[in-house]
Amino acid sequence: MATPFKHRLLLPVACVFLAATTTYATACTCAVQSTRQRLGNADSVFRGELVGHRFGQAVFRVRERWKGEVGVQFSVDWHEFTPDCRGFAEEDLKIGKDLLVFANRSSLGTYETSVCAGTGSIAESGAALADLGPGQPPLADAPWDVTKKLSLTCIIFAILITIAAFVRDWHRIRHR
Description:
The chain has helices at residues 5-21, 35-41, 126-132, 146-174; strands at residues 44-54, 57-67, 73-77, 98-105, 111-112, 120-121. By secondary structure, the chain is of the alpha+beta class. The chain has a domain at 35-143: CATH 2.40.50. Strands 1, 2, 3, 4, 5 and 6 form a six-stranded antiparallel beta sheet that branches.
């Protein structure tokens, strides 16, 4: 006997619902490290306020720095916590949040962090801040970060496409 059409859809719909609403356990375990070890492992360390999310990156207004060429504005790849420990804790991705960030340069040239690196809320980083001591002000003339390069690249690309479309249309009109 054939099953009614609505019953044939029940199992796939239930599977999609379960897959979409199920959370998974993470396999992330962090090795215990001192603040000095974390500082040594990072390419850049700074304190900053999260002021925006742009092009897949968390954008910070830097207040002080301990390591790296960190300018007044600094961007770190925006990852919500992943099972391999990369990214920020979810509560740390709120605009206005003041964070201590330990970041490393990725193979793409951007910066990223990890919950194991020591990145976290200033409110919970008192011991790390005491270990780091006073920081230095951000660099006024730090190199352009990747988001500025991406923005400029997108603008140039859009201009080139516009010029190409104009030339194509001009040739069509001229050769009628």
